[in-house]
Amino acid sequence: MKKKTKKQLKFGLIGRNISYSFSKKYFNEKFEIGHFDNCEYKNYDIESIKEFPKIITEIKGLRGLNVTIPYKEEIITYLDKLSKTAEKIGAVNCITISKKKKLKGYNTDYHGFKKSIQPLLKEHHKKALILGTGGASKAIAYALRKLKIEYDFVSRTADEFQYKYEELDASIFEEYTIIINTTPVGTHPNVDDFPNLDYSLFTKKHIAYDLIYNPEETAFLKKAKAQGTVTKNGYEMLVLQAEKAWKIWNE
């Protein structure tokens, strides 16, 4: 992309209650540092996904969008095309918009997660528990498959495909040495909240990974860390997925 053109290029984030968002600050600082004077990034905070088409029709110069909670799955019906990866995952967090207003969905979450957890992995990290079953959890599951790590989901309700929080005992924790929180539990301002787990079951062999980045250390991570567990928040994942989105928007 040429750094200075007359045409204004607009990017943004689709979500609900996203004033805290990482993306707006990150991209606008990126544009300023890189002298992309023709680029701007805004939050499009919508109460319902039904408001999405209005953004596409009314905002001129819109080139790309990120998508966050709770629309990563709902957005798919409004898109003209999906990348092969997004189709396999079943969730979208990045959209390109052509001059003819054709929308294509991608998933860069899996890329960010995969790259950020890889340095932490050791031989004994063979199985993971994914807390939550929303759009973000699907990208995590896809990344784990790519890393050849087995996984199971944990939800408030159990079925043949997922555990219930109350079911997680010592034998399960011994088997699953990676615990990943993909839920919004513990996000600012509710910083004292944490997933319903027996944190005494965490050990030095475990990895506790939280997709949340605000606060920097969630209650989930603090409680796991107190047991000697290796912990990581979602900040690096966000940076990596954002840079991947920027690359896609400029292809």
From TrEMBL:
Keyword Cell cycle carried by entry: no
UniProt keywords, alphabetically: Amino-acid biosynthesis, Aromatic amino acid biosynthesis, Oxidoreductase
GO molecular-function terms, A-Z: NADP binding; shikimate 3-dehydrogenase (NADP+) activity
Pathway membership: Metabolic intermediate biosynthesis; chorismate biosynthesis; chorismate from D-erythrose 4-phosphate and phosphoenolpyruvate: step 4/7
The Shikimate dehydrogenase substrate binding N-terminal domain, residue ranges: 13-95
A GO term from the CC aspect: cytosol
One annotated GO biological process: aromatic amino acid family biosynthetic process
SUPFAM superfamilies noted in UniProt: Aminoacid dehydrogenase-like, N-terminal domain, NAD(P)-binding Rossmann-fold domains
InterPro entries: Aminoacid_DH-like_N_sf, NAD(P)-bd_dom_sf, Shikimate_DH-bd_N, Shikimate_DH_fam
A Pfam short name: Shikimate_dh_N
CDD domains: NAD_bind_Shikimate_DH
Protein known as: Shikimate dehydrogenase
